[in-house]
């Protein structure tokens, strides 16, 4: 593995995050009706339009794309600026992802954390967790980036 990230953000961003993105990519292809209904807890699964199915499939495709881009960038570059800029882009996307989820969700369901479903925990809980790791990394709380072998020579 050529990732220059310190151990904790390396595990989170090169192992945990791609696996969770792949799970998110597979879910709409298994059942787009379930995937759409589960975006907000307590919504019953019901038939969806072909347009809604298309959006669910495209979202799954984007999750797969994000997993591949993350693996490609973090496993191949030894340039700290590239890694940092990539993490900043993810950090900003985390803010947007959580903000949109909170904006669209009914307030009562949003604050009823005990009744969140797995997708809500992914959309808010996991994203806030990733945001926290990215923030700590950007502030240098995990220590410096690991020097690549080619840079040490």
Structure explained in plain terms:
The protein is an all-alpha fold. The protein has one domain (7-40, 49-141). It contains 7 helices and no strands. The protein has helices at residues 7-30, 32-37, 50-76, 80-104, 107-111, 118-138, 149-152. α1 runs antiparallel to α3 and α1 (7-30) runs antiparallel to α6 (118-138). The two termini are 18 Å apart. The model has no long low-confidence stretch (mean pLDDT 93).
What would a concise description of this structure say?
This protein is mostly helical and 153 residues long. It has helices at residues 7-30, 32-37, 50-76, 80-104, 107-111, 118-138, 149-152.
Q: Tally of extended strands?
A: 0
Span between N and C termini?
Answer: 18 Å
What does the average pLDDT come to? 93
The number of helical elements comes to: 7
Number of domains: 1
Structural class: mainly alpha
Strand content: under 5%
Proportion in helices: over 70%
Shape: globular
Largest β sheet strand count, sense and barrel closure? none
> Uncertain regions: pLDDT < 50 for 5+ in a row?
none
Question: Radius of gyration over alpha carbons?
Answer: 17 Å
Following the backbone from N to C, one meets helices and strands in this order, namely HHHHHHH
What's the topology here?
Layout: H1 7-30, H2 32-37, H3 50-76, H4 80-104, H5 107-111, H6 118-138, H7 149-152
Helix pairs in contact: 1-3, 1-6, 4-6
Descriptive tags:
single chain, 153 residues, mainly alpha, 7 helices
